[in-house]
Amino acid sequence: MQILDLAVETIRKQGAKGRVNSAPLAAKLEAMAVCGDQAVRIWQSYLDKPGTPGDKYSIVSWIGAERAKQLYELGLRSHTLVNEVCAATGSQARFLVLDESPIALAYRGLKAGETGTQAAQALLAEQQATNKHLRALANKLRAVRPVAAKKPAAKSAKKPAAKKAARKAAKKKPAVRKKTTAKKPAARKPARKTAKKAAKKK
Predict the structure, then answer these.
(1) What is the pTM of this model?
(2) Mean pLDDT for the chain?
């Protein structure tokens, strides 16, 4: 699941910066895991009743065309979800080559000496591991909290308040100076008049 690993890591970083809402994407990963649960039941239904052995070439000849078709349809549904998750990475999406499927399909050939039952057991175990991994990726996205996006908003809210306080303080200072300068000339004038009167009397 290398593609989804890379996509989830990119989304997790973007989500931490508040650029992507990761919750809906976690739901898509969970939906893939649900498709995987259905695939597990299909493989298990074959192993519970293997029936007549098939040929030495294809798994389909062992599990039957109907089961193979059901797995293929689950693969198509999951592939759409994979595309949607990868598209959420934005510009990084062009680096993701969608050649993986989260559903274990029945269209590979049998290995030398391998039976259809053995292949089904291996693919069942592979699907169970994939489902577990998909849910782990979904939990990673659910845990994302856009902490970094909140900090700049708090700082910008404080700056205008500090500027307003500085402006108010600057306005008050000139008003105090004007009052003191206005009082000084008024106090000096009477002193000059009394000095002139004293000189005339002499």
Answers:
(1) 0.69
(2) 81
